[in-house]
Amino acid sequence: MSTIRLTELSIMWHRSSLVLREQAMAECGYKDPMPYWDWTRDATPEKFRKSELFDSKKGFGGDGSGETDWVDGLCVEEGPYARLEVNYPEPHCLTRRFNISEPVVSNWTKSVVNKIMQYDNYLEFWNNTELHPHDNFHRAIGGDLRRQYSPNEPLFFLHHAQIDRLWTIWQGRNETRLHDYAGNTVQNATVDTASLNDQLLTLGFAPTRGVDDFMDTLSNGLCYTYDDADDEWKYDDDDAN
């Protein structure tokens, strides 16, 4: 993860990981599509805290509250993942440490996302998506989700499914945007080296595939879309949140 984030490969790698995750869940008997969390509906501290996603019975449980000596979080003690032991980078309980403040939560309001969706090129779209909703959601949950091993946190996949949804909507069926990919492939570099021929490494979990294989969700065996991907699309005002 530490070599993927802060590069243009990030959004592509996460799309490929969502596909692999959904395939793995199907092998375990899960028959529904990958859910996403439209966090624009929970874009105030009060609404975020009260989100049904944190319900202990029908959601993912809430903030960490147990004792732990693990880095940057407290053990989750309620819900389906209570005392869940995750194995990377070494065995420990799943941790969270909420930072649900206005400066953090305001990064995924409807108005912020609408502005991001108005960018007409991939580089600006992704850089602003990463800077605002993507990174700050990780900060808001804290714990494992804030570290390089953030996929330990089940909410990781709902968060990145929403990011993927927004990218899919931004792409539309526009042939230019379906092949629009640019930027750096090395952290902190400013040189535009990204290419559709770049390879997405999977460390043996799946065959290595090229970036171009993941540009279009309806091609190359991906075969999925989102229910509002083809709409004339814009979030309502935040007042309607």
From TrEMBL:
One of its GO terms (molecular function) is metal ion binding. It comes from the Eukaryota. InterPro entries: Di-copper_centre_dom_sf, Tyrosinase/Hemocyanin, Tyrosinase_Cu-bd. Residues 12-172 form the Tyrosinase copper-binding domain. Pfam families: Tyrosinase. Keywords: Copper, Metal-binding. SUPFAM superfamilies: Di-copper centre-containing domain (SSF48056). This is Tyrosinase copper-binding domain-containing protein.
